[in-house]
What does this fold into?
Amino acid sequence: MDESTREGLLYDKRPDGKVKCRVCPRLCVIAEGKLGTCRTRQNIGGKCYTLIYGKVVSVAADPIEKKPLFHFHPGTMCLSLGTLGCNMRCLHCQNWQIAHADALEDGGQLRVLPPEKIPQVASSHGCQGVAWTYNEPTIWLEYALDGARACHEHGLYTVFVTNGYITQEALAIIAPHLDAYRVDIKGFRPETYKFLAKIKDVQPIFDAAVAAQKEYGCHVEIVTNIIPTVNDDEETLGSIAAWIARDLGKKTPWHVTRFHPYLELSHLPSTPIETLERALEIGRLAGLEFVYVGNVPGHPAENTVCPNCRRIAVRRDGYSLGEVNVREGYCVFCGEDLNIVQGDGLAAGGSGAGSGRG
Ligand code: SF4
It folds into this structure.
C-alpha cells in the first residue's frame, strides 16, 4: 500500500465484509477488492480506502474567470488541481480521459503532490488561491481537506468546482475549509440527470449548494451548460432560475454556457446563441441580477452590469478583465452591493491582474 492509499473518512464496515461509502449520495456498497462507482475507492480487507490521496493528474495556473467564477477574487490566478475518477458519468464530459478513468489503471498519469506542498506550488505559479477542479473534487475529500487547510494557513483562497453530488456529512467536513463553491446544475428534473449523468436523485445537489452558502458561508456561483433537446426547455431553465432566486438569492451569479457537440452527445448541435439569450432573459425575469453567457467570447453578457444604475461594473473579454468599477464589492457609481468578493487582482479604476491572459 503506497502513501496515496489512505483509509477513507466516511464509511461503514458491514458484517459481510463489504463497506458502505458515505462520501457521495451514491452510497456505494463495495465488496472486498472492488472499487466504488468513482473508481477511486476500494475495499481492502474490509476497510474503505481512497487510492488518490496526494496524487494529481493535472496542475495548471488558470484565471479564476475560467472556472467560471466572476464574483470571487476577479482578476486573480488560481492553481487548478485534478485527479482521476468521478461519481457521475456525463455523456458529454470534457475531461472524460481522467474523469472516467480507473485509479488502479492510471497508466502512469498520476504524480505525487503532498497537500502541504500545494501552497508553495501555488505561490510559485503566481496564484492567490487553489481550485479542486477538472474532475469531481468530492471523491478527493481527504486530500482536498488537508490541502485546503494548508492553503488557509498560507493565506490562499480555496475553491471547489463541483457537480454538487456530495452527502451532507462530507460537505460538513470540507465546506468549512472552502471559500467558494462553484456548482453545475445540469437540469432540474431527475430524468435529465439520469440521462445525462447516470444518477437518480437530484435533491442532494440542490441541498448541498444551499448548505454551502447558508451554513458554511461559501461564495456560490451556478453554471448550467445548456444542451439542445436535453435541458434547453423553458420549464427547466425557468425552474433552475427560480430555485436560485428563491433558495440562494437574486445576487447569486448564474452562468448559462454554450454546449458544443462532444463524446456521446456528438450528434447534437452547438447551443444556438438565441437559446442562450433566452436563458439570460429567463434568469432576469426570475429576478436574478447577475446572469452571464459563457463560451461565447465577446458576448455583452460577459460583463457585470450594476443592477441598480445599469453601468458596467466589470468589463470582460473571455477570461480577461477590462474596465473595473467596483470597490470592496460595491458599485463605485451608486454603491450597490454587487456580491463580489474582491481580492488583490481587481482594483477600481483600472484593469484586473487577469487582463490579457485570455
Ligand atoms: S465517493 Fe465513490 S465510492 Fe464513495 S459513494 Fe461516491 S461513487 Fe461510491
About this structure: The first helix runs from residue 96 to 99. The chain has two domains: 6-50, 56-302. The domain at 56-302 is CATH 3.20.20.70 (TIM Barrel). Residues 21 and 27 are 5 Å apart (CA to CA).
